[in-house]
Fold this protein.
Amino acid sequence: MKSFWKTSLIVCVIASFALVGGIVPTAKAAPKVIKIGVIYPLTGPAAAAGRELRAGAELAAKICNNVMPGIDMPMAKNAGIKALGGAKIKLIFKDHQGNPQLGADLAKQLIKDDHVVGILGCYYSSVTKTVSAVCERYGVPMINGSSTSPALTKRGFKWFWRTTPHDKYFTEDLFKFLVGLTQGKVKGVKPVPKSDLEPIVSACENTEWGSHVSGLIKTMAKKYHFKLAKSILYAAKAPDLSAEVQSLIEPKPGTMLFASYISDAILMVKTLKSMKAHPKIIWGQDAGFEKPEFRSTLKDNIVGVLTRTVFIPSIAKVKKVAGEVNALYKKKTGHDLGGASARSFTGLQAWVAILEKAGSTNPKAIQKAANTIMIPGEYLVVPWKGIKFSTSGDEIGQNVLGSGMIGQYQKDASGNIVLQAVYPFELATAKMIYPFKGF
Amino acid sequence: MEVIRNIFDLSDIPRKDLTVFGIFSLFLLIFPLIPHSSFAMATMIEFLMFSLYGMGWNTIGGYGGQVDLGKAQYAGIGAFTTAVMLIHWNIPFWISAPVGMIFAIIWSFAIGYPLFRMRGHYFAIATIATSLVLLDVFQSWNFVGAAKGLELPLKSMPSLLYLQFRSDTYYYYILLFLFFFGFFYINWFRKSRLGFQLRAIKDNEEVARSLGINVHWCKIKTYAIATSFVAVVGSFHACYNFNIDPEDIMSLDLSILIAMMAMVGGAGSLWGPIIGAAVLIPLKSYLGSWLGGKEGLAGLDLVIYALIIMIIAAFEPRGIWGIVEKARKRGKI
């Protein structure tokens, strides 16, 4: 018995390190397969977004790997990457749990152990920052489809490209929209006195992304001459937001702006309701405000709430390919494409197009292809003019052809809550509900 | 001379334990020479970091019995000092890390003085509160990058001076040096006058006071020692990651994880933090890596991880080392 315990103890300690020691062999890449590492938050506060992001990337891989005549985009016409002899895309998913250090470790694992050609990710700007730093160190290409902190493309990185527009553009869109409201440009709304929209208050979660948005709101409020009464940062994991909401409603705001992930976005709206907040406009900077769970949890309470987005299902009316892909996505997941899934789909689509252009998995060839690629807007599900990355100036790697939208939650004829586009004004799909009817 | 002798004196430790530690040390020394994956190397680096964090926590939390749940604030002070000094004044790690340690110690004195007037749960809650307040300060302080944090400028690699390497092996050996340094320091500490005083305080504070021990001052001094360990690892973290932000390095999650290393391994023992980190870190990393990305299994890794911790805590509240000691008493080891 003595020896049993002794052996058990030694075996336990050594085994845990032997495990770490990589005695478990690393799988060799199968021929004709191109491995792309995908790092998203599959658990934690943004798990709901993670599921969407994953589904979007998986759908894009499926379309790339199979011939799909019903989809009007180049990658649906061949099975696999034509320029690489029909090699199939294989996605290796990793869960960063919202932890930048873990994200960096996973990126190293994907690059050095799984030998991926490149990386797609990571949603959280803070994680994208550490993962892209690892990619830069190892000279491995990374495409970011869904992190919107402007700082990410201001670092002069050579191996980092971002397809999504960033928060500077999105926040400016919001203020252009508010100005449009005062000028009567919004469909279904007469000119609104500016004083009705003031003062503005904002509450943003306090990590990399939210703090950037908060700074941009301050800058843009000054630029467009709106009175910003209060601007606070809060912890996204906070179990209670009563103090924050109390502070926000105290100056009797006309417009309330938020940058929140999903759990805090839901908590924020519930707290606004319990404290009887009654602003004329509530606007969320995408993320939590656009997730299916936001809609399904809060139901009628969000009718009239605005959110920045890059995809609204109703644009299928004017963009055929968006409708085709959305139908497939809905079949797969049971709900429409959203801002997160549409952008992860587009991120992987960009990967496929770059690999087709490079005709090689050599990092240098991929880098060259990424720097010269031009994907026309007609092949994208998102309403952008296309994808073309900046190679000079202070935003290296940023897609210069992207743009945002503002949607409003409204009830359709069947009583379902759907997003309708209200900005850009020319793409409006419904009359705007103004003012917000209250909770 | 006596101090040096005490540092390396392991004569009170059973031979069997020393044999296991010897084999383990040998394994640590040759690990980079064994074929390994890069994720394994990253996990080993994390193991060494958390061992050191745990060793620091173990002084005040284990030997002193003062449950501190705010250690991440000191990791933040160390990390941001290193980052700020490098960015603004191009000062290398080997100077900025001791400076960060000094700042952390000063801060520990400032908050330790009032905090150690409290006991038990009140003390634990107060440490959480101070840590969260400092996190809020850093998140809105532009000089340290506020919530965005700081990105360290890249130097020509490899640079031992600035602790910037392309290969993780260099980081590993530097950390391994700190690990052994920390281990022998704790070995000295537990047999020092302060170590004995602290254990007397843990057993019965009133009796310790009646014996003439300055209880308050003993706790503050030990808290500063714990702090210096955590601050140095924080500095290392900044160089290793090239990027720090307050939410990452100063979070409550990190504070709890630091405490857990010693608690699960065995608080108040020399081996506890090492065993805790050796079990928890690979478990967390590999469960996350294997199950975290699997469709339909998202979150299962965290469930298993939590279950294992709960089972250990329920089976033996003194942690894994407690289980070993129990078995030893029964003559099974």
Observations:
- Chain B has one domain: 2-265.
